[in-house]
Structures are given as C-alpha cells and as structure tokens.
Amino acid sequence: PDERSGHRIVVTDANLYSIGGYNPNFWDEHNDETTYYPLFRELWKFNFATRLWTQLETQSTMPYELASHTVVLDRCNMLMFGGTAIPFGESNSNDLNVCNLSTASWKLYTCYGDLPTKKYGHAMSMQDDLVFVVGGTSGYRYNMDVHQLNLKTLKWTQLSGKEYKSAHPESRYRHEIVYRDRELYLIGGGTAIEQYSLDKIPVFHTVNLKWKELKTKPDPIKGFPAPRKCHSCMKLNNEIYICGGLLDRKIADDIWKLNLVTIQWTKLSAFLPQPVYFHAASVTSLGCMYIFGGVSKIDVERTNGLYKIWLKIPPLTEMCWQLLCDTIDMKYINSEKLLDMGVPSLFVDRLSTL
C-alpha cells in the first residue's frame, strides 16, 4: 500500500486488514469509478505468515468517508462507523458499514433511534452486542456525546451529551476509548490547538450514565505520558497500551502501559522505529501489537511502514510458528507440505483463513 494516514486496521491471529486513509500527494491523481484520491478507497490484507500484502476486491459499495473513521472486529465482520470524505468536514458520515472479511462484501446496516451526528475523529469500542461511540468533530464543532448501539436491534441510544445535565469532559477528537467493567476510559485526544493530559482520565459509567475523573499514578522514574492526540490505544487483559501521537508540534515515538487495576503508568523501554501520528494499530488475541502507516513528519511526510511488538511472552507453540515463518518463505510452500512436516493445522490454516 502507498503511504497513508487517518486509516484504521483490525487484526486476527492470521491477518491484518487496513481500510482507507489519506495522502495529499494524490490530489492530482486521476480517479475512476473505484478510486477516490487523495483518499484511499481500498481494503488491504497482510498475511503474517507469507508477509504478503493483497488489495481485496470487495463486493457491493465501499464507503467514501475513509479518513478518521473507526473500525472494530466482530468475528468475521469489520464494523466501520463515521469518517469524513473530501473535503474534510464537508462530507461526514454517521453510517454503520459492515464488511464481511471472509467474503469481502460490504453491507450498510439500517439503524434507528438516537443516531450520532455525522462526524469523524471519534472513538469506538465494542463489548458483546454493544458498540459505543464517543466524541469527535463535524469539522467545525467538537463534541463529547456518548452513544450506544445494540447490534441485535440496531437501535442507537444516546447516553450522554451536551443536552444532558451531568458534567462531561472537554469535547475533543482523535482520542481513544477502552471498555472495562461497564466503564469507558477516555484516553487523550484534543482539538486543533490543544492536547489533553493523561495523568487524569475521564471515565464514563455506561449504566449510571455519569462521568468521573480517575487520577492515575505516575511511572516512578518517567512520570506521566505527555498529553497527546492522534495516537493509538489497545487493551490487552487489564492493561492498556498507547503509542505515538502528536504532542503539540512534536511527534511521539514512545510506548506506555496503564494497569487498570493499580491505575499505574509504566513507560516501556521500547520505542517505535519512527515517530508517527494519525497511524493505526491493533493487537492480536495473543498480545502482538501491529502498527501501520501514519504521518512521520508534521504536515509533510507519511509512511507505509508496518511494525510489530510483542506486549507479552507468547505461547511456546506460537514462538515455534514465528521461527518457522522466519526460516521458511511461506509464499512458496503449500499447506500439504507443512502438514507433512508435522505443523499443526491451526497454524497451517493461517495461510488461507481470516
């Protein structure tokens, strides 16, 4: 894929999927019925075993609002909400588009109820059959609305917002949210001119519908992460990991961990290979975090670099599989050969499945 920013990714244990993104160097590119430059109307798949990228030909209509949208993975379905098309802020979405990754087919879900406003730069999280969308911008106004979608009924319910009496945090965009024990943790974000701190974290209770402020504990040596927006944030067990982002006029390359039980920040010794913001990241069920793309020089340069880091020690079987993939070029070996070698089918299946 070309260098891009503002895209989103999801991962399985076998593949990474990247949807959308933006690169201003493509403004003068000719568009046909399938392209929408300078936005990338593209769905890419990266197979971890073969190390191959494949642009997927999808069925039905792919959305056009492909910058600062959000995605979550629901089994074989990638749920995409919101985003902006060109020009930014003039053509926003509040649609829920779903791509079945096993068939590469799109479907627009017809939802009802208290729909969120059309926006981008919001955050999204999923728990069981509920999807939560928080904050974002129309391009002219920021908000801190909290909406919940029931996937069984496709009904939207507004849980918090400007017209509600309870106090809420500053409106913002390009933040992240994490769900744990019926609560949504609001991580960073900002506006065009500021970034919000991470020493105190706003938390929204999805049942009693109230905000509270959670005071975190600093890393004993490194203190707190710097305020940031356009970063990435992943939850793994009872810990969240943030990396990269925009710190005022500086791009971050650091990685931090927040334990949601002790509320303690820890700065990891590892750094990103290059500072990025407006990148995309996701973590596998086994704890391998992948980071793709982003802006590497403010307003000037984007990247298509793909990196990974293990956030916890993987199982021994996974280590063996990773070593095998490093040793054998999986692009040129068939499944039968691997099975004859004694490789378990659950790993061999990764060559061809989700």
Question: In summary, what is this structure?
Answer:
The protein is mostly beta strands and 354 residues long. It is built from 3 helices and 26 strands.
Report on this structure.
With 354 residues, this protein is mostly beta strands. The chain has a domain at 316-354. The chain has 3 helices and 26 strands. This is Kelch domain-containing protein 10. InterPro entries: Gal_Oxase/kelch_b-propeller, Kelch-typ_b-propeller, Kelch_1, KLHDC10. Belongs to the KLHDC10 family.
How big a fraction of the residues is strand?
Answer: 35-45%
**Which sequence of strands runs across the widest sheet?**
9-13-12-11-10
Sheet with most strands: 5 strands, mixed
Mean pLDDT: 94
Number of helices: 3
Give the termini separation: 19 Å
User: Unreliable runs, pLDDT <50, ≥5 residues?
Assistant: none
* Rg over alpha carbons: 20 Å
Name the helicity range. under 10%
N to C succession of SSEs: EEEEEEEEEEEEEEEEEEEEEEEEEEHHH
Care to count the β-strands? 26
Shape field: globular
Derived structural class: mainly beta
List keywords for this structure.
KLHDC10, four-stranded antiparallel beta sheet, Kelch-typ_b-propeller, Kelch domain-containing protein 10, 26 strands, Gal_Oxase/kelch_b-propeller, 354 residues, five-stranded mixed beta sheet, kelch repeat, single chain, 3 helices, mainly beta
How do the helices and strands line up, and which of them pair or pack?
Elements: E1 8-11, E2 15-19, E3 43-47, E4 52-55, E5 70-74, E6 77-81, E7 96-100, E8 105-109, E9 112-113, E10 123-127, E11 130-137, E12 142-150, E13 155-160, E14 176-180, E15 183-187, E16 200-205, E17 211-215, E18 232-236, E19 239-243, E20 246-247, E21 250-251, E22 254-259, E23 264-271, E24 280-283, E25 288-297, E26 301-310, H1 316-327, H2 335-340, H3 345-348
Parallel strand pairs: 9-13
Antiparallel strand pairs: 1-2, 2-3, 3-4, 5-6, 6-7, 7-8, 10-11, 11-12, 12-13, 14-15, 15-16, 16-17, 18-19, 19-22, 20-21, 22-23, 24-25, 25-26
